[in-house]
């Protein structure tokens, strides 16, 4: 099992069980995870993104080789974001980056965000986009989910881009915008289901997108891991479909890395 959506270090608003790298690795391994793609909660609010990525890289290396795959944080609204991207790729040898648009205060109509995705693609990096981090119903200060709709044109224009959308629950809405409907069908868009709600939610997501482009993501340690694993169990997938969701689709994202 490959978990494409975990974070290390401390969630800014309260302690979480498993918010240190060693404990989280132990808990994930006990549940059958052989690899986890990790970013850092520090990236949400810190302005020293270079330091955030150094600590992330060191923590992933300290736990064990190849269990945590670090995904660096880059904020295109900071003046040195191109250097942060370069360091992720050339210094830390990261497989990809993770963006937090709603925490960093930009939309995907912002030219800087589109330039960042373009440059990451030129470097052959996977781009993960955390469209939200927490349900607005539980937030003390409401931070609305980011709208992915403007990326529909970019996905068509940049077929080499590999974008993984994390933590979004509206992919299966019948009244979804035209942009979201186009993203669902884009061959270079991938989706986790950490925030998909309701019985049969995973099945609906697969039907709306593709069984080849849905990946396992638990949003650990913020969510209990079992929330994601039970969604797979209740979906009634064939063995091949289940293996694709749990592992093979994530592996395909690294096909040319």
Give the secondary structure arrangement, pairings included:
Elements: E1 2-8, H1 21-30, E2 35-40, H2 49-63, E3 68-73, H3 81-91, E4 96-99, H4 101-104, H5 111-122, E5 126-130, H6 151-157, E6 163-166, H7 178-185, E7 189-191, H8 201-208, H9 225-234, H10 239-253
Parallel strand pairs: 1-2, 2-3, 3-4, 4-5, 5-6, 6-7
Helix pairs in contact: 6-7
Concise overview:
With 257 residues, the protein is of the alpha/beta class. 39% of the residues lie in helices and 14% in strands.
Structure write-up:
By secondary structure, this protein is α/β, with parallel strands linked by helices. The protein contains ten helices and seven strands. It has helices at residues 21-30, 49-63, 81-91, 101-104, 111-122, 151-157, 178-185, 201-208, 225-234, 239-253, and strands at residues 2-8, 35-40, 68-73, 96-99, 126-130, 163-166, 189-191. The chain has a seven-stranded parallel beta sheet. Helix 3 links the parallel strand 3 (68-73) and strand 4. Helix 6 (151-157) packs parallel to helix 7.
């Amino acid at each position: 099992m490959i978990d494409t959506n975990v974070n290390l270090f401390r969630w800014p608003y309260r302690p979480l069980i498993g918010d240190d790298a060693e404990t989280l690795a132990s808990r994930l391994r006990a549940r059958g995870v052989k690899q986890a793609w990790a970013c850092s909660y520090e990236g949400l609010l810190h302005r020293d993104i270079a330091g955030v990525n150094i600590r992330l890289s060191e923590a992933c290396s300290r736990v064990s080789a190849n269990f945590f795959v670090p995904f660096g944080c880059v904020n295109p609204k900071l003046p040195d974001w191109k250097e942060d991207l370069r360091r992720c790729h050339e210094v830390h040898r990261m497989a990809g980056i993770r963006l937090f648009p709603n925490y960093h205060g930009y939309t995907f109509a912002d030219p800087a965000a589109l330039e960042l995705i373009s440059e990451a693609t030129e470097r052959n990096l996977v781009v993960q986009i955390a469209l939200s981090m927490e349900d607005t119903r539980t937030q003390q200060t409401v931070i609305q989910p980011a709208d992915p709709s403007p990326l529909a044109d970019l996905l068509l224009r940049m077929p080499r881009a590999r974008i993984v959308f994390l933590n979004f629950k509206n992919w299966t809405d019948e009244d979804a915008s035209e942009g979201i409907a186009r993203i669902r069908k884009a061959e270079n868009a991938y989706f986790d289901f950490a925030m998909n709600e309701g019985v049969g939610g995973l099945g609906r997501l697969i039907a709306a997108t593709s069984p080849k482009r849905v990946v396992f993501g638990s949003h650990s340690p913020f969510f209990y891991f079992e929330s994601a694993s039970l969604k797979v169990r209740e979906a009634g997938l064939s063995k091949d479909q289940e293996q694709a969701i749990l592992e093979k689709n994530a592996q395909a994202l690294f096909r040319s890395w």
